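JOB MANIFEST
job_type = single_chain_structure
chain_count = 1
residues = 330
[input]
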Amino acid sequence: MNRSFGYGPQPEPPPLGEVLRAKRDLRKYLNETPLVSSKKLSRLIGADVYVKLENLNPTNSFKVRGGIHFMSAMRGEGLKGVVTASMGNHAQSVAYAGSLFGVPVKVVMPQWVSRLKVEAVEELDAEVIKFGSYYDEAAEYAEKLAGELGYFYVHAIEERLLHVGVATMHLEVVEKLPDVDAVINPLGGGTGAIGAVSVYKAIDPRIEIYGVQAEGADAFYRSFKSGELVNLTGVSTRAEGLAVARTYRIPFELLKNSLKDIVLVSDHEMEEAIRTLYATVRQVSEHAGAAATAAAFKMKSELAEKKVVLMLTGGNISQEEFARVLSGKP
C-alpha cells in the first residue's frame, strides 16, 4: 500500500497554507522548539547567528514533526501497520508517532547504525530489522517487506506528508525572526531543505537557503552541480543522518532551483562544530545536527553581517561518542 509518496509527475513544494494547518495540528503533540541567539557564536562566525534547537524535540530530532503529521493525516485510512527505513532519527519519528496513534511499526536500519538509535526505536515498541550497509539498501528491503505484509511503506525521503510536517520548524523560525537573511540546513535525503523552500520562498524569496552535505556522502551535491541524478556505490561518514548514497528524484526536482548553494563538510569539521555548539549554546548535537554550524565556519565571507539561522537538527549521539568528540580524540 502506498500513494506514490503523495506527489505527481511534476512535484511542487507543499503550499504554505498546508504547512500552517500542520503546525496547528502538531501543537496538540509537540511544543515549539527554541530559537536562541549566541553572542559568542556570532563573534566567531562574523554574523548575527541564531540556532534552532530541534534536538529538544521528544525524539531529539526534527524528524518527529514529519512522523506525527504523517500518522495524523493518515489516521482515517485504516492503517494495518507501517514499514519504513532509516539511519535512526526518522525511525524514532515514525515509531513515536505509531505509539501515539496505536499503529504497529517496523523499521529497517542499516547494519552499522548505533546501538543508541536501535534501542531508542525499540523503546517506542517498534520492531527493528537490520539490513544493508547504508540507507538506500535498507529502503529497498523495507519497501519489499511492506508489500509482503500489507503494510504502508513510508518513504523517509520522498513521502510528501513528512515534508509538510518538517516544514513547521522553518515556519517557527520565520515567525520569530521575520528578517532572517540566510538559513543553513543539513541535507541527507532533503526533507528539511524541502521544508525550508516551502516556507521561506513563499514568505520572502530573498531569504537564502543553504544545504550541507558530508564529504563522504555527497550525492546530492554532485547532482546539484551537474544537473543529473547521482547514485554512489557507498558512503563514508560518521554522520548517520547524512549517510545517503543517492539523489532521489522528488527532492532534486523541488530543490535544484531553490537552494542558494550546497556546502560540503568533513567529519572532522562536524566534530569541531559539535564542540563549538556545546561551548557556545550548551547543546548536545550529533554529527548531522552540527553540519549547519560546520558549514557556517566555511562560509564566513558569504554570511558576514547577515542574520543567519543554523538548524541544529538532532542530538542523538551516544555518551561514549560525545565524550570522544569533546576530548578531541580521532
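[summary]
Strands lie at 35-37, 48-53, 82-85, 105-109, 127-130, 152-154, 182-186, 208-214, 261-265, 307-312.
The radius of gyration is 18 Å.
exit_status = 0
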